[in-house]
């Protein structure tokens, strides 16, 4: 495994996705243990996407103080129920939330009857205290959560907002195998905004797959700009990016 630093961002390049996930999980586990030595409760946010499979699977192999962790996630489609397989709540319940005993799990209710009230409810939870660590990915268009260019705002005054998904983001859901065709992908979503990431104590970003190579090149070699929202990782004081040979092939 090779590593280098770009601005403030530590980058690890693994031979394959499994090795990438194992390295990310090891670092995440170390951070959880470090935090558990000094605080009773750990606020942790998770991305929900196939790109996180190897990291979350490896993380489950560690004996961690899961009962200290208050879990959050970062986005959900408007109008989708948690029973549907494409729901991000469903994904995280299947892959991690349903496999460990967490102190609490805070889910975005995309099928709430009043979406603005739901946005405000989740924002209030996020404003109680910053995230201690966030496990995230990067989209094919450089998004983090569903902060798509050019609508992403590094200085958003909201912590959660209702957004219309870009066509590129919707197509990615098809590319990931989550939906059969783009017309099946919801148009709207609730998303956590970029200030939540900027204020978090630590960021651990896992990005496998050749389809992400252009986004990774722009993240690391382009300007720090909301035209590539993931570029904000380079100015965070404690962020790590984990790649495999596919996602790093254009560097």
Secondary structure elements and pairings:
Layout: E1 2-6, E2 9-13, H1 17-36, E3 42-46, H2 53-59, E4 69-73, E5 75-77, H3 88-97, E6 104-106, H4 115-127, E7 133-136, E8 160-164, H5 167-175, E9 188-192, H6 194-199, E10 203-207, H7 213-221, E11 239-243
Parallel strand pairs: 2-11, 3-4, 3-7, 4-6, 7-10, 10-11
Antiparallel strand pairs: 1-2, 5-9, 8-9
Quick take:
This protein is an alpha/beta fold and 251 residues long. Helix content is 29%, strand content 20%. It has one domain (10-243): Rossmann fold.
Task: Please explain how this structure is put together.
The protein is an alpha/beta fold. The chain has a single domain (10-243), classed as Rossmann fold (3-Layer(aba) Sandwich). Helix content is 29%, strand content 20%. It has helices at residues 17-36, 53-59, 88-97, 115-127, 167-175, 194-199, 213-221, and strands spanning 2-6, 9-13, 42-46, 69-73, 75-77, 104-106, 133-136, 160-164, 188-192, 203-207, 239-243. It has an eight-stranded mixed beta sheet with strand order 1-2-11-10-7-3-4-6, with helices on one face. A hairpin with a 2-residue loop joins strand 1 (2-6) and strand 2 (9-13). Helix 1 (17-36) crosses helix 2. The protein is globular, with a radius of gyration of 17 Å. The mean pLDDT is 96.
């Amino acid at each position: 495994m090779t590593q280098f630093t770009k601005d403030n961002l530590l980058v690890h390049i693994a031979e394959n996705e499994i090795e990438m996930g194992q390295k990310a999980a090891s670092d995440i586990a170390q951070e959880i243990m470090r935090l558990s030595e000094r605080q009773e409760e750990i606020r942790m946010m998770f991305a929900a996407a196939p790109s996180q499979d190897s990291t979350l699977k490896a993380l489950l192999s560690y004996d961690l103080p899961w009962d200290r962790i208050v879990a959050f996630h970062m986005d959900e489609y408007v109008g989708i129920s948690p029973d549907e397989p494409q729901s991000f709540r469903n994904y995280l319940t299947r892959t991690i939330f349903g496999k460990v005993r967490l102190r609490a799990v805070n889910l975005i209710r995309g099928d709430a009857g009043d979406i603005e009230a739901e946005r405000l409810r989740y924002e209030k939870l996020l404003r109680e205290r910053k995230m201690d660590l966030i496990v995230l990915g990067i989209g094919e268009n450089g998004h983090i959560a569903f902060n798509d260019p050019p609508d992403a705002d590094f200085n958003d005054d909201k912590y959660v907002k209702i957004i219309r998904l870009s066509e590129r983001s919707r197509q990615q859901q098809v590319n990931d195998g989550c939906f059969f065709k783009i017309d099946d992908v919801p148009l709207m979503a609730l998303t956590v905004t970029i200030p939540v990431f900027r204020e978090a104590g630590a960021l651990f970003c896992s990005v496998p797959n050749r389809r992400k190579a252009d986004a990774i090149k722009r993240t690391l070699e382009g300007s720090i700009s909301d035209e590539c929202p993931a570029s904000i990782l380079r100015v965070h004081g404690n962020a790590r990016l984990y790649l495999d040979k596919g996602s790093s092939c254009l560097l």
